[in-house]
Sequence to fold (639 residues):
Amino acid sequence: MSTATEVPRGAVPHPDITDLAEVNRDVLRPLGRPGLGWWMMLALAIAGIGLLGVSWGFQMWKGIGVTGLASPVGWGVYITTFVFWVGIAHSGTLISAILFLFRAPWRQSIYRAAEAMTVFAVMTAGLFPLIHVGRVWHAYWLIPYPNSRFLWPNFRSPLVWDVFAVTTYFTVSAVFFYLGTIPDLAAARDAATGLRKKLYKVISLGWRGTDREWHHFGKAYIFLAALATPLVLSVHSVVSWDFAVAIVPGWHTTIFAPYFVAGAIYSGVAMVITLTVPLRKAFGLEAYLTTKHYDAMAKLCLLTSMIVFYAYLSEFFMAWYSGEEVERAAFWARLFGPYWWAAWTMLVCNAMVPIMLWFKRVRYSIPALFTISIFVNIGMWFERYVIIATSLHHEYEPFAWGMYRPSLTEMGVMVGSFAWFGFWFLLFTRLLPPVAIAELKEVLPTPMRRAVPAHGGLEGGDR
Amino acid sequence: MSDHIGLLASFDYVDSAVNAIEELRGEGLKDITAYMPYPDHHIEEALGYDQSPVRVWALAGGLCGAAGGFAFTSFTSMDWPLVTGGKPILSIPAYFIIAFEMAVLFGVLSTVIGLFINSRLPYIKPMVVYDPEFSAGKFGVFVTVPPDRLGRARDILNGQEPSDLREDPEGVRHAS
Fold:
């Protein structure tokens, strides 16, 4: 909840919006009757979930052997896609919590969509450990519970940290997302009729926007942001330790935690661009998601792409400089071994293509940004594939080297996970206000009757 | 309170609402509820808010979570003291991660509970003292006054040119 002193530098962030009530009209309009395009995309998403269900069902029926996972590569597409989706989730919390604490003036119109993306991405990521364990009916063994033999999980294992980190992250991001929408759900309730009004009435918890509600809400929101900020950094660090704690060459490095966090934010911001460009177009939200917002996101992408590229280079450098023969061989195999295509896809998409973001014309061009964001999404998936599969296929002993080829089942599950994510995001665009109504009003000019200050600290014009 | 009368005014401008609140409070009419489409700090300042107790909930939840995380990992390890990887039975650095995650989880949940208690959400009474415009662009001021001061309160609210002013005796029972 920004205050009057934090006037954004430069112009007002949303010069085309003049009236507070206009925000409600514009943002709530998409919640009306969906068009044919939306139904077609929903049908596609449901078909994709069908693919996911069939693939997973087939694996449950036949066993984990239907995947390409076999010694030495025991972690493949499933874990790659798990890390990919956890990474995607991160930028939502970055935009909603970290940029909130830093009072970035451009987060208000984006953060709702980014937060929704976070929740759905964690929901998607959460499927993969369940799929990967094979016998999913034993998945509850991951959770510490008092069982009949009084056996407890090994809390020294990064895999157990991961269970705690990801479940906490899901709970916290879902709570944060829901809490932030309550005032906007009340706005939706006040504008809706019939059954929808009843629905919004229940889920808005009878929010009236009283001074008491706002006062405690603002304080609670700051604390949630302050708690979510270290959480988001910890979650991907813990995910990186799933690898870094093992002594596999290519995994066992101390830079993994910051490297993964930067990569997560990078891929997440790219995904926000990928998702909001069509959203903005379909719902006519150009006045809310302006080119300035995309410029800011592009700069964030550029920064994190440089961090990620630096991490790639330092990995190669350290492999050479350490003189460690196995490490050198692993990194040589990464670039010129049988998985060269994966490593080069990663390097081109994540390190080369974003160089274009140095140019202002590119940052201000929505089609260019959309295209680059797709490249980054692909590159970041391949980054995890490179780290996971190629490191495992080329460990210490030459007799233990081996190849991994993802099976059709694994690809079906991976493609289906995008449909599962898309399904939730499509529902979000029609059921919840896609832009944070109340918070956006905070960065609009305060409606003042008198242009001259009426009271100490009361100023007309922008806040 | 039973004979008190409620007055609900809607304003288009923040400064009108702020002036009205300050004048009403100057008259000793302290039972005021303001309605805002977004949290406006001018109005919160006019109502003289203190620190929110939600922060205590956040701290208490976080500390309980951290203590619980350490206790849980330590006691379960000592319950079956099996050495793995040559690590000590009480591997504090490793348990710190679990404790940290639990601190965040319980800190957040406790903050939300604190918010619900302090802001009296969910509000399940009928929405009598409310106007759908308050979530769009209007600022509302609701004040409960004894009958003998009704005229004065009405004058104050009218002095700030409200877009709507209604007398709401029924609302007093439902207010705040």
In short: Residues 206 and 230 of chain A are 32 Å apart (CA to CA).
